[in-house]
Design goal:
This is Sulfur compound chelating protein SoxZ. The protein is an all-beta fold and about 110 residues long. The chain has one domain: Sandwich (Immunoglobulin-like). About 0% of the residues lie in helices and about 45% in strands. It contains no helices and seven strands. The N and C termini lie far apart (about 35 Å). The relative contact order is 0.31.
């Protein structure tokens, strides 16, 4: 997972204080359930993204647990109210213990 760059977008791009924005995220990940076998009949080990969290200036704004029913390349969208300009940090953690993060700058227009 570490070589994948997540994508994140906020809408509107330049919100005002008090606006509610939509945050859309997409990360490339196989989300392997551990139920399939490879061409040699060996079980492919489970490796899914099991948690996602979003913090704005260090304060949690959204979090979620993901399960094997989530498809590959999970897309997550949520809304949040803009209280000030700052950094929105998005973090994904998978079963292999790998963590992937990206930061979106929220500027107030």
């Amino acid at each position: 997972m570490s070589n994948n760059k997540p994508r994140a977008k906020i809408s509107p791009a330049n919100p005002k204080v008090g606006d509610v924005i939509e945050v859309k995220t997409l990360v490339s990940h196989v989300m392997e359930t551990g139920l399939r076998k490879d061409k040699n009949g060996q079980v492919i080990p489970r490796n899914i993204i099991h948690s996602f969290k979003a913090t704005f200036e260090g304060e949690p704004v959204f979090s979620g647990d993901l399960y094997p029913g989530i498809s590959a390349n999970p897309y997550i969208a949520f809304h949040m109210k803009v209280t000030k300009p700052g950094a929105l940090e998005l973090t994904w953690v998978d079963d292999a213990g790998e963590t992937l993060s990206t930061t979106v700058s929220v500027t107030v227009g």
